[in-house]
Write a structure and sequence with these properties.
Layout (H helix, E strand, L loop, with lengths): L31 H7 L20 E4 L5 E3 L5 E4 L4 E4 L2 E3 L7 E7 L2 H9 L1 E2 L14 E5 L4 E4 L4 E4 L8 E5 L3 H4 L2 H4 L6 E6 L2 E6 L5 E10 L4 E11 L21 E4 L3 E3 L1 H13 L4 E5 L6 E2 L16 E2 L10 E4 L25 H16 L3 E5 L3 H5 L2 E2 L2 E2 L5 E2 L16 H6 L4 E2 L15 E4 L2 E4 L5 H12 L2 H7 L5
Parallel strand pairs: 3-15, 16-18, 16-21, 17-19, 18-20, 21-22, 22-28, 25-26
Antiparallel strand pairs: 1-15, 2-5, 4-13, 6-14, 7-8, 8-9, 9-10, 10-11, 12-13, 14-15, 23-24, 27-28
Helix pairs in contact: 5-9
Length: about 475
């Protein structure tokens, strides 16, 4: 043990309160106190062995005997400087409104070790001081720790045989012990707004971390841990494009969704096709609050939440090339002339909202612009009234033939909604290839309709092609000439 007298640096200063430590141990030899400690004569801090691996992500940990569970969330991908919103949902016999959600960032193993032992960053980690190629780290209270070439991290107990394994890192922590002594901070914030998880990484932060999500109804609780990977955001264009429309460019396309229960794939695939053709898309709904889709309607890991660009009351038809109503049963709230009451209260909107939607459709018709809808959204056109008649009277359309939301009226399908208002609806798969509904898109005058989510991609392509035709663009932009 003659090599123990190599440690004679001064006792480190007290740890600073700033986010990063400024202390550095010197390269000089340690005092007698240090030698005694390494020989096992000085009491060490309370032991707390830790695991170095992350907990398994996206796992469910419901409380025992609870009659509900917290639905798993897949690992998330965020961009630096941009908030990521994810809806938290549960399954079982409980109302979401009765739950309280919370979330917090899980400390890394390195951060936990540093917090417990107050490890000190050093200029010299005394490699191979005791002959095992170990590298040494000191704590501010005088304890010693070492990391082996393979990454195992130990608390020194007077000998290698008696030392306590605290974590099993990889070799990078041996190459750079600062990863343990000076762990990197997680520069992100996490909170919950109602049932929406909001994760906001700092503008210059990239990396990964874990978030623990908790839910409780006051009696039972459940939790899960999800991994969040943060990628660097792509810088936005610095040049401001000329926003003045020209006769060679179509106006944006307005997509209308419901704030509750719109069909996500019908929205997403249609929008993707429109934007692939270079068209700008603007989204409107009853309010600009986050819109939630039907469950299992094609949304991804982020839950399919969409924040509308503006409320329907703020829309001016003259600003758009076409209006598109997305399906999903939430579209029922826009049916102007429907006289019944839906069993699901969220589908029963105010007369003022219905009048706003009907006036908007009339404005598009008066300006000779395309009015489009997909799936149950076609029922909005059926109940629209232009000069006292249904917009679909005498028109042929494609739409979802299946069930419609329950109400106090003897109307059980979307087809009935259309046919009761004078429209003719084709059979499923009746357009183009009879073996598929992917091409079931019908254009009748200025009315464009599509069957359902299978047809959404072509629906967007057809709308994009029609509103981009030079003759149509010239007509829409006549006032600019």
């Amino acid at each position: 043990m003659s090599r123990l007298n190599l440690f004679t640096t001064k006792k480190p200063r007290k740890k600073a309160s700033s986010n990063r430590k400024s202390r550095r141990l010197g390269r000089n030899l340690q005092s007698l106190e240090d030698r005694r400690m390494m020989a096992g004569d000085v009491a060490t801090a309370e032991l707390m062995p830790l695991e170095s691996e992350y907990f398994e992500t996206s796992t469910l940990d419901p409380a025992a005997q609870a009659n509900w569970t917290l639905d798993p969330i897949a690992d998330l991908v965020a961009n630096s400087g941009q908030p990521l919103e994810t809806m938290l949902t549960v399954s079982g016999d409980v109302e979401t409104e009765a739950l309280f959600f919370s979330a917090s960032i899980v400390s890394t193993i390195e951060q936990q070790l540093d917090a417990q032992y107050d490890l000190v960053e050093s200029d010299d980690y005394h490699t191979n001081c005791l002959g095992n190629n170990e590298r040494w780290i000191r704590s501010a209270n005088g304890g010693w720790f070492y990391v082996m070439p393979s990454g195992e991290f130990y608390q020194w107990q007077g000998s290698f045989a008696k030392s306590t394994l605290l974590a099993d890192f990889d070799s990078s922590h041996y190459d750079n012990p600062d990863l343990i002594a000076e762990p990197e901070s997680i520069d992100a914030s996490v909170h919950v707004e109602g049932d929406i998880l909001v994760i906001t990484p700092d503008a210059d932060y990239t990396g990964s971390f874990q978030v623990e999500i908790d839910a409780t109804d006051g009696t039972h609780s459940a939790s899960q841990t999800v991994m969040v990977a943060v990628a660097e955001s792509i810088p936005e264009e610095t040049d401001t494009p000329d926003e003045t429309p020209t006769a060679n460019e179509p106006l944006p396309v307005l997509m209308v969704i419901a704030n509750q229960d719109f069909y996500y794939q019908e929205y997403g695939d249609t929008r993707q096709s429109l934007e692939a053709q270079g068209l700008e898309v603007v989204v409107a709904a009853t309010t600009t609050e986050v819109a939630r889709p039907h469950a299992n309607s094609g949304q991804g890991a982020d839950g399919g939440l969409v924040r509308p660009d503006l409320a329907l009351t703020d829309v001016e038809a003259e600003d758009y090339s076409a209006i598109v109503f997305v399906g999903g049963w939430g579209a029922s709230s826009y049916q102007y002339a429907f006289e019944g009451t839906y069993n699901h209260g969220v589908y029963n909107s105010t007369e003022a909202l219905k009048s706003t939607v009907n006036d908007l459709i009339n404005d598009f018709v008066e300006q000779d612009k395309y009015v489009a809808a997909i799936c149950h959204g076609v029922s909005v056109l059926a109940y629209a009234r232009v000069d006292g008649s249904s917009l679909l009277e005498g028109k042929t359309v494609s739409a979802w033939a299946g069930s419609a939301p329950s109400s106090d009226q003897p109307i059980y399908t979307t087809r009935q909604n259309i046919e009761l208002n004078g429209g003719t609806m084709v059979q499923s798969g009746a357009v183009g290839d009879p073996t598929t509904v992917e091409d079931d898109v019908i254009v009748d005058g200025r009315i464009i309709t599509a069957e359902n989510y299978d047809s959404a991609a072509m629906f967007g392509r057809v709308i994009g092609e029609l509103v981009s035709e030079p003759e149509y663009v010239d007509a829409v932009f006549a006032e600019w000439e």
